[in-house]
Amino acid sequence: MSPIRRKGAERSRREPSAPSTPSAPRPPTAPSAPRPPTAPSAPRPPTSGEAHSTAPIRTLGLTKEYGDLVAVDSLDLEVHAGEIFGLLGQNGAGKTTTILMLLGLSEPSAGEARVVGLDPTRDPLGVKRRVGYLPDAVGFYGGLTGRENLRYTARLNGLRGADAEERIDAVLDQVRLTDRADDRVDTYSRGMKQRLGIADALVKEPEVLILDEPTTAIDPIGVVEILELLRGLVREQGLAILLSSHLLNQVQNVCDRVGIFAAGRLIGIGTVAQLAHRFGGQGTHVEIRLAGVPDGDEVEAVALALGRIEGVSAVHQPAAGHDAWTLDVRTRDDVAGVLAASLAIITRDGLRLTAIREIEPTLDDIYRRAVSQAGVDAAPRRAVA
Amino acid sequence: MSATTGPAQATSAGRRAERLPTSAGWLIVASKELADHLLSVRFFVLLLVLGAAAVIPLYFAAERLRSLASDISGLQAVFLALFTVTPEGVPDFRVDVFVGIAAPLLGIGFAFDAVNGERSEGTLPRLLSQPIHRDDVVNGKFAAGLIVIALVLLAVMVGIAGFGLARLGIVPAASEVMRLVLWYLVTVLYVALWLAFGLLLSIVIRRGATAALAGFGVWLFVAIPYFGPRFISAILGIFLRPVSGEEVLGAQGLQEFVLRFLPSRLYAEASIVLLNPAVTTVSTPATLDQYLQLQQQIPTLVSLDQSLLLIWPHVVVLLALTVGCFALAYAQFMRQEVRA
């Protein structure tokens, strides 16, 4: 009944058929919820449009058009104090354009934004005084030392003398660059420059931090360091942080809420668990790791047996050199039965089991599904626009 | 959450309020740029280029001056002759001509990568996200460039004057000092035009190397008398075939008119009038009578205000060109997207 296909092909075929709306609210079942335990209390419900809202970042119908191209399409967004909000989307989805509008560096075609209570178009200086910004591919004056670069930023923010030095020492310490602070930035690694960029954004003691692709082009350990640093800033200083990224899995653990951004529109907003629920559809996966299944007939036999389990829609054989089998399960309610039946088969056939578990959908999966669903929904609307 | 962060934010906002009002953003940008310029290799290279441009003709001028010393000692403007005397048979081998050729390089050299350099280094978005106006960036960079140029020109001029004082024992008269100061100011203005042009290039052209090449090309054509001006004269010469004396004068007048569209020509005329009080006119006489009159004129030295009257239009046009160039650069920069 279940043809055995390669994993990738199967997934891409299956996704568009996922239902576009969740049938009924389901209690969050995720045992390993992607949100870290340090996250603040339950996310607030979206209240965009409320005039008295105190959220440091709010947008209402924010739109940016370049000629016929709609880079950002009526964006409604709120980021609260003490929260890390991830703006996730592919390159060209409109993330940077949104950020530039929030900073008053680009004028919206329609709609409005309020950042720390100010209109970035009317009072860009007021916004820039209180918002730290780490640009995409941040650069520094290579001939100057890290400290000198920060000193320039401090002066531009009206900090001088002992106050400035004290503040610079503090932020350098925060990003752990103190010992390299007096070397030319030319000699810094990419990760160090990125950390210096965060220090640079922090010099002005911002209430809001806006980070454009803070983890791009950084090695995995550097990413963890940066994300821990951000988490600490939120915990200790109650900043509101908006970060954009196209590396979804990297940031999913650090974001309290995420907004999924595609073709200029926010197609999903909420915690990763909420989005998983909304876009994850009914299906889920079970991964089984088997040691030492020989090739050939025996593999086919195992696949056939697993495929016959009630609730399994497809079986993906491990690629050469791997031992992970993946079962597509029709609904989450079937998972328990599938696990039990798989174990029975494995025991019966005398296979050596090393691991068996349900796989939570990653943000990448969620993103792909959200985009494909929105793509179907969006087609007529974009034609009108 | 907001309850716990409230006080912290209030104090940080309070400290921020204390910092305000900050000094003008352009001053901070300018002082940083100035420090960069003064420590850059570029500064020394351009100082050397301009120094060489001044010293080489000065050397020959000094030789000639010494041999002529007896003749010219009675003249009023001996000191200025340092800048304008040429070796025999080489008419354009003068300090002011050489400075007029090399000085524009200063303008282009300090501006060609002002904005596109920030862009390619990735520092522009960071700079613009600081609480300064966007025009502070352009203004600060222009101001810093102008200060460096003024310093370099001053150093070269003082060097020449010092050479005159020490080696030749010529002491300038008060009117000569005034003329030198005015020549200095006109030269700074002329270089400011090139600086504004370089700034415009750095904003319009995204790559520093391309902007430098474009600036260099324009410099070659406009600032060097043997390229653009020669070329224009040659083209005009094809169409103008004067026969009578009046026609010759007319043709020359037309050539002059066309060449004055080049700022280098304006500077050259202003420069010679200021440095050589014996120059009483910058235009070719319109009629044969005027020409003959000019021939019969007894050579005298004109007073400073007469010289100023002669070049006032030149200065105004140079100023207008500079302001126009800067305004164009400014407008382009304000309209540009921050993102590369």
Keywords summarizing the entry:
heterodimer; A: 385 residues; alpha/beta; Alpha-Beta Plaits; Rossmann fold; six-stranded mixed sheet; four-stranded antiparallel sheet; 12 helices; 36% helix; 23% strand; elongated; disordered N terminus; B: 340 residues; mainly alpha; globular
Spatial strand sequence of the major β-sheet of chain A: 5-6-7-3-8-9
Biggest sheet statistics of chain A: 6 strands, mixed
Determine the strand fraction of chain B and express it as a percent band.
under 5%
Helix content of chain A: 25-40%
Give the overall shape of chain B, derived from the CA principal axes: globular
The end-to-end span of chain A amounts to: 44 Å
Which architecture of the largest domain in chain A does the CATH hierarchy give at level 2?
3-Layer(aba) Sandwich
Number of strands of chain B: 0
Bulk shape of chain A: elongated
Structural class of chain B: mainly alpha
Number of strands of chain A: 13
Describe this structure in words.
The complex is a heterodimer of chains A (385) and B (340). By secondary structure, chain A is α/β, with parallel strands linked by helices. In chain A, helix 4 packs across helix 5 and helix 9 packs across helix 12. The longest helix of chain A has 22 residues. Chain A has twelve helices and 13 strands. Chain A has a six-stranded mixed β-sheet, sandwiched between helices. A four-stranded antiparallel β-sheet of chain A has the order 11-12-10-13, with helices on one face. In chain A, strands 2-1-4 form a three-stranded antiparallel β-sheet, with helices on one face. The radius of gyration of chain A is 24 Å and the shape is elongated. Chain A folds into two domains: 96 residues, Alpha-Beta Plaits, CATH 3.30.70; 214 residues, Rossmann fold (3-Layer(aba) Sandwich), CATH 3.40.50. In chain A, helix 7 links the parallel strand 6 and strand 7. With 340 residues, chain B is mainly α. Chain B has one domain. In chain B, 77% of the residues lie in helices and 0% in strands. Chain B is built from 15 helices and no strands. In chain B, 36% of the residues are buried. Chains A and B meet through helix 3 and helix 4 of A and helix 1, helix 2 and helix 7 of B.
